């Protein structure tokens, strides 16, 4: 009983100290994020290489200022990983924080209301590429850590692992993890790179889709041809590519690649009923993205189609004349970037192989095709009965006043599965973004409310996780 | 008898005078063409507007130097038409020469072995955008005219009408013709904007395909979306566009637009047998453009597919992320440029309307589509029993030593049909280019042999046409 009082007392004091510190430093916390958002760390495009490195150095400096030890940029075959740690007591649990400082390309630039790398705050939102994904959400952890250190309330050991290649498939992270197994030992991986259902409906992501991403090239004639002189007599690679892509979905929007669904984990009616309890308004959903109708696999509802079902989407297509006016040409080549989202228990490598085999098999003799695998990742489902999940749930409940809902997301964070296999650690996905944040789109933004809520909620997770271990 | 001797004498003398003059001025004739090829007169792209005008002025100046009267740039709503004439005797027949000084866009630039607007002569060919289509072939007429004037052998009145918008559908030429009916009166229209079967197999084009050119836009969500969070639940406009395009050909490569073939003129077995007599080697054809197999409409051979049958080809397609690396996005919009080649007796306007109606009708409710007509043109068949055709045939026979073969081309010169309807004049299509000249492609070229042969053959056409009228 005494212990209980004492505990609540400590808790109250520490909570109020934490909240006071956050309140006193709010403007600086925001301005530091804006500074980072000004650096265009687009990992997919080599011409931003120097900016990617500047961003890594920015994170490194802020981590050190926040109180981390052994802060360094660990070289990889690609962009460096920012590492830093604070070991206060080896007997305490250790939280391994993962995030990424690279961002998606910002094009099409013309659709942004303000330049993607000149952040502005409007109507309570920070607008910039990376505002939410993942600079904003990653930086909440740096500032929450600073808060715990400065208020002397850090309840766990912490290790930070902030990478710069998430948007290009974390191509070198598995190697980094393998080569640093000892220094990465811990009890849980904490990640904020997902979203919540809403500010009044906090949620924790308990499942993620995997991915297989390929680029295809279809070659017809060995040079561009005059569509008048040759039209009708030779294979037009664009028409052929369209036919090949079209054939990959049947009339029910099932994917036709042989064996594609072989290992797909079908949910039970109970599980689907449980999912259906999450608040969802189809009309609002359509209105938010300007759709007159949704579109997807027969036999599944929208929230299932974008989370527990695999997909095949063309992310980019190009070929022939795309300039102003009209050019009557038959292109020599046509290209597409195609990604498939995977669900348990599909294997990225296996699906990529099946795609390649199928794509080559359906190509008519009149063209040649090439399939280049880009990157992949495995799907995951994280446990909801773990101490980490319970601690996170409790933390959200305290800051939002509502118990968070567990949801399966359609997104992919391939490294979650890799962490499990390489380090034997589960991840807890404490996302504070919203679906409406337009990540990967023009006008990406992140609510100041969400950013600050994250900084408030994270210290509570540390406290509860320490208490429960 | 006396007349006959006298005639042959005159002919021989004039022929030798003409050949002497051409021989003496060959280098200058070539250099003047190279000068014109250095001006990038791309009509499809506004940024070349000034160069287009410079090219018009270049042609105007050369025509005047060659001896034309009343040379002027006639303004239109678009690029000016270069007009010039030489009326030597109202009782003589009048030849109306048509050509165009604008060229196709040169991209993709990286596939050119030498810059498209820095002409080079290699292995007897002039390499440059427009070398053949149509600057080279148009300029043959200017130099042939100069030759006839300077050697005092001009046998007909001449009128030149050289436009600057052929590659964008001659959008303002019909208006020009209507507004200049009087000054454009004549007996025949002479055009060199087509090809020959080979240097040892001269041919005259007696048929051309028409065209309907449209640009389509498919819109799904109102902004680009994250393919993880939305993939599978919303219509991906690129996938949908591919499905719509794919559905426009059936398994026999027949076009599925309702009513598309309604007015197509079917050739008789006799006509098809006659066509089949033109020299054609399928293996050579495939080898020349690097195809392992041809591809086209069931029931027709290659030479029919690219001349007497209508087509539907995607000339350009774009949407989503087309940059380096991978971006997991569902694009808001996808686009395609689509051209349909038409044959007698299809109507461009009617086909465009049918396409629009069909395209809109097959769009799923989950997307919105827009169809923008670009430009069109009507198919034509020109008579082979006319004095003009016979005069052209005789001219080729004298310079090539072989009687030319009449062929139907798959290309389109929409204005041929317009000239017939507006001026009541037939055209004779004296082409000197080859299918291998790569017009509309990188490394377009024109044989010096062909250029000079054209300059030699054209004066003979004038002579025979005058004799036959």
From TrEMBL, chains A, B:
Keyword Nucleus among UniProt keywords: no
EC number: 3.4.13.-
Pfam families: M20_dimer, Peptidase_M20
Gene Ontology molecular functions: dipeptidase activity
CDD domains: M20_dipept_like
Keyword Heme attributed: no
Keyword terms of this UniProt record: Dipeptidase, Hydrolase, Metal-binding, Protease
InterPro entries: Bact_exopeptidase_dim_dom (IPR036264), Cyt/Met_Dipeptidase (IPR051458), Peptidase_M20 (IPR002933), Peptidase_M20_dimer (IPR011650)
Span of domain Peptidase M20 dimerisation: 207-365
Superkingdom per UniProt: Bacteria
Name of the protein in its database record: Dipeptidase
Source species: Pontibacter rugosus
